[in-house]
Write a structure and sequence with these properties.
The complex is a heterodimer.
Chain A lengths: L1 E10 L2 E11 L4 E5 L6 H8 L7 E6 L2 E2 L7 H6 L1 E4 L11 H11 L5 H14 L15 H13 L5 E5 L7 H16 L3 E5 L3 H7 L2 E6 L2 E7 H6 L4 H10 L2
Parallel strand pairs in A: 3-8, 3-9, 6-7, 7-8
Antiparallel strand pairs in A: 1-2, 1-4, 4-5, 9-10
Helix pairs in contact in A: 3-4, 3-5, 4-5, 5-6
Chain B lengths: L18 H34 L4 H16 L2 H15 L2 H10 L2 H30 L3 H9 L4 H16 L1 H14 L11 H12 L2 H30 L9
The chains are: A alpha/beta, B mainly alpha.
């Protein structure tokens, strides 16, 4: 579903991604972890072209997104993305946050978009808040809305960029629950997170990054029971109490 | 020294009512000029400000040059330049009409509106740019990730939020444009300031007239500030500063 081939990226002279290669199969849940500054957020943003790369190729399905001829906007609309700081549009009601791109990008009718939005709000348990503004919801609720917003576009794959890092601890689970449910339904997911509980529960594979490199790319079982590199061992020792 | 505070209620020597009518006429011209210039400034300022946020080098450079040009030359000089040059740039019947047939006050009004509008547009452009650039970068990411085009992103996401942020600075720009409009009297416009000389010629009471004009300016600006406070209240979002 997602293929990254020898991705490299520089900010000026500083290389943030070093020759990263991996792939995510359909229906797979891949967790990307690593110390801060390791390039994991940058890596996931390259998948839908939010962060351009200088070297390497990226494919979603058979479509190369690093090619100039690709209609990126259209492709992006089928790749759902959830951000650390939710990034709901603060001036639009929850309902309008969910319908805007459906109407403007997918060309759905108002009624169709609204119906889809309400059914997804129902699914994340927030139907009652449809007419509120994002600022009136808690962080956990906003992030659930953000997930619903991405799902409204019928994505073939979902990207999560540290979806629970900006949340108060008591709100982390309500968001993780939605994600776990999504994983069980067979959604293809790439998730940058420090939530190792989530990884243990639903991940198929774990990618461990350090200093812009993918240094482990293995099954969940192997990663947690027998990490190959010292850096991964060190990281796990620090993060799992 | 004796002051004649009832001066504005005395009849003018031309039989066209009392001096308060003249003051009122001046206020109408000042307000019309301010509003016309504001429309020019807001439209051009928004376009230039948006251009300033583009990655395209040519558009960006053009916007920077525009802003520096109109921002760094004194308004008085700009007013004179438009007054001297603009009629010369016209040709044929249009030129004859503009210079000879047009009412001199309308003639000055048009040139003053262009000068003041362009001068202020450079300032508004910078505010619009700041408004857009201080939005969290994640908003751009979110709009892009949903597949919105650049145009849609500006239209539906960035601009509505940027304008909300800069309502207070736009308010002060509005009061500035009203005060700056007074420079138009130097190219012959009979606005509030222009009326000072006119009334003084027949009454010789400069202190009273200045007090009257000052008060009128304060009244106009106070009304603008009051209205804009309402606008600010109406457009304010819950938890706006949190960026969520």
């Amino acid at each position: 579903m997602i293929t990254l081939k020898n991705i490299s990226k520089w900010y000026g002279r500083f290389q943030v991604l070093k020759d990263c290669t991996t792939q995510v199969e359909k229906g797979e849940v891949v967790v990307v972890c690593g110390p801060s500054g390791s390039g994991k957020s940058t890596l996931i943003k390259t998948v839908n072209g939010l962060e351009p790369v200088q070297k390497g190729k990226i494919f979603i399905g058979d479509t190369e997104i690093t090619s100039n001829s690709t209609n990126l906007a259209r492709l992006r609309s089928r790749v759902g993305m959830v951000f650390q700081h939710f990034e709901l549009f603060p001036h639009l009601t929850i309902l309008k946050n969910l319908t805007l791109a459906q109407i403007k990008v997918l060309g759905r009718s108002d009624d169709e978009a609204k119906e889809k939005a309400l059914s997804l709000l129902e699914r994340v348990g927030l139907s009652a808040h449809a007419n509120k503004l994002p600022g009136q919801l808690s962080g956990g609720q906003q992030q659930r809305v953000a997930i619903a917003r991405a799902l409204c576009m019928d994505p073939v794959v979902m990207l999560f960029d540290e979806p629970t890092s900006a949340l108060d601890p008591e709100m982390v689970n309500e968001v993780l629950d939605v994600m776990v449910e999504l994983a069980y339904e067979g959604m293809t997911m790439m998730v940058v997170t420090h939530e190792m509980g989530f990884a243990r529960k639903v991940a198929n594979r774990v990618i461990f990054m350090d200093k812009g490199e993918i240094i482990e790319d293995t099954s969940k079982e192997q990663f947690f029971s027998d990490p190959q590199t010292d850096r991964a061992k060190d990281f796990l020792a620090k993060i799992i109490h | 020294m004796d002051f004649n505070w009832t001066l504005f209620f005395e009849p003018t020597p031309y039989g066209d009512g009392i001096y308060l009518n003249w003051l009122w006429n001046g206020a109408v011209v000042t307000l019309s000029l301010a509003i016309t210039s504001w429309v020019i400034a807001f439209v051009l300022g928004s376009i230039i400000g948006i251009m300033r946020t583009f990655k395209n080098k040519w558009l960006n450079t053009f916007a920077v040059a525009y802003i520096e040009l109109f921002r760094n030359i004194p308004l008085l000089a700009q007013m004179f330049i438009w007054y001297m040059l603009m009629p010369e740039m016209l040709s044929g019947a249009l030129k004859t009409w503009f210079i000879q047939d047009l009412d001199p006050n309308v003639h000055s009004f048009i040139l003053a509106a262009i000068a003041l509008g362009l001068f202020t547009s450079a300032r508004i452009a910078e505010q619009v740019r700041t408004g857009i650039q201080t939005l969290p970068v994640g908003q751009k990411y979110a709009a892009t990730a949903l597949g919105l085009s650049k145009l849609q992103m500006y239209r539906y996401i960035l601009l509505p939020n940027a304008y909300r942020k800069i309502v207070p600075t736009l308010t002060s720009e509005m009061t500035n444009i009203i005060k700056n409009s007074s420079v138009a009297s130097t190219i012959g416009l009979i606005d509030l300031i222009g009326q000072i000389d006119r009334i003084n010629e027949s009454t010789n009471s400069i202190v009273e007239i200045l007090c009257g004009v000052t008060l009128t300016f304060m009244l106009i600006n106070y009304s603008v500030i009051t209205i804009m406070r309402l606008v600010e209240k109406k457009t304010r979002l819950p938890n706006m500063m949190s960026g969520g």
